[in-house]
Amino acid sequence: MDNMTMAWHQTESPLLSTACGLYQMALCAVGDAALAGPAAAGAFADAFNRIPDTFDIGLFRMQCYSLLYRHCKKVRGHACCHKLLSGTLACLDFDERFILLLFCLQKYSVRQIAKITRLPGFVIEKRLNSAVGKVTHKFA
Q: CA gyration radius for the chain?
């Protein structure tokens, strides 16, 4: 295997897992596959087109989720979003839901979520605490 092929295989798997993670996040955030697919694909394509010569998968993922946040926020008011979101996540507004998903599913820290959403850290903490409170109250 030549060096170029090896380099591609080393980046192919993280890129594929990032694309799958974006779709899952979008699906959980908006609740509709028809809206989640284009939002995830758009975020991935935008981030991929911005890849610098020195590729860092961690920064790429953060940029993808930042773009996904903006893409999903555009479609969050769509009527079918509210119909399809059910269960525990339905009690959360969009920002709380997205922040909770980043924290729990993607294991991002409050500081990283602040960078992704471009919101101050104290706002992230407040919305995360609010989301956890609503979810735990729903189970109580």
A: 16
Identify the structural domains of the chain with CATH numbers, from first to last: 3-139 (1.20.140)
Contact 116, 65 (CB under 8 A): yes
Nearest Cα to Cα of residue 88 among 104, 75, 76? 104
Whether residue 82 contacts residue 53, with contact meaning beta carbons closer than 8 Å, is answered with no
Dump pLDDT digits (tens) for 49-74: 887 766 788 888 999 999 999 988 88
pTM of the model: 0.78
- What are 90-102's pLDDT values in tens digits? 788 889 989 999 9
Alpha-carbon separation of residue 132 from 27, 52, 53, 126 (angstroms): 20, 37, 39, 10
- DSSP state, residue 92: S
State the burial class of residue 106 (Cβ atoms within 10 Å of its Cβ: 0-12, 13-18, 19+). Answer: middle
